[in-house]
Amino acid sequence: MAKTAWRTIHHRLAGRVRADVLLCMLAHDVEWRMQETLKPLLFHDEEPLPATSPVVSAEPSDGAALKVAMKRTASGLSAQGFPGPMAHLATLSRFRMRPRSE
Q: Which residues contact 98 (CB under 8 A, 6 or more apart)?
């Protein structure tokens, strides 16, 4: 995603710093909400297993592992990672055409 990466930007005015932080937070929120909404179609765990340790990476549930292996959801729909739908959305555009009046 373009704006969700937090990086150092050297703004000179406090209002611009606040605006940049606000935009980053909004972009992160939109991305999180999209991932939550699309979770059934993504490789994400819908019901993650309880973490046994805060240090050790969580193991995927059986449903998530099956989704990754089969590249299909339990209902038979195509499953993919989050960059896939984002790349598709990037190709969509809207045009308004008006016929020329003569």
A: none
